[in-house]
Amino acid sequence: MPFRLSLRSILALIGLICFALLAFAWFLQYGPDKQQPCPLCILQRYVFMALGTVCLLAAAHWPGRNGQLAYLGVADLLATTGIGMATWQLLKGGSMTSCLADPIGDFVNGLPSANWWPEFLFATGGCADKYPPVLGISVPVWALIWFAALSLCFGWMAASSFRSNQQ
Fold first, then answer.
1. pLDDT attached to residue 94
2. Which of 15, 41, 67, 140 could form a disulfide with 55 if both were Cys (CB 3.0 to 4.6 A apart)?
3. Which is nearest to 163 in space by CA: 18, 49, 39, 65?
């Protein structure tokens, strides 16, 4: 009999992956390259935090089919929001040389959490800052890849959940 993960286990794994990605962001910020996050990077960190939390809550709670679909819908909405943010950063971020002094930077750095955890949630870098790529891919592209993969995964899980309850 082949090994098969349950949807609940997959959600727990995704939650852990989201928090592992945040730990890697911490390493990039305080590691050898000292990559300082821009406001758009910080907003994407919030999305990964929310995604990880929703996935872990869903895995712990695991309600009936309607509740599962609600969790998956919220998670997919968050992943889609992340796709939008990462795409915006890729398309416009390179031209936003003063993003720390614009409404996005003011908003991000004005959030209470930026004061509660300034080492991780306070934007100190510019959107146009160029840093060495990770495995040949820039950090915003990595974020876009992860958000897109997670969105597809949530869609697959919702379809799976729906199909299994139809039979």
1. 63
2. 15
3. 65
The 10s digit of each residue's pLDDT in 112-128 is: 988 898 888 888 877 66
Query: By percentage, how much of the chain surpasses pLDDT 90?
Result: 40
72 near 157, Cβ under 8 Å?
yes
2 within some domain: no
Two tokens, residue 44: 């994407």
CATH number, position 44: 1.20.1550.10
Q: What is the mean pLDDT of residues 120-143?
A: 81
What is the extent of the structural domain holding 63? Answer: 7-166
The pLDDT assigned to 16 comes to 96
> 18 and 47 in contact (C-beta within 8 Å)?
no
Cα torsion 34, 107, 19, 157: sign: negative
Average pLDDT over residues 26-47: 88
φ, ψ at 137 (rounded to 5°):
-125, 135
Task: Spell 23-62 as b/e; 16+ CB within 10 A means b.
Answer: eebeebbeeeeebbbbbbbbbbbbbbbbbbebbbebbeee
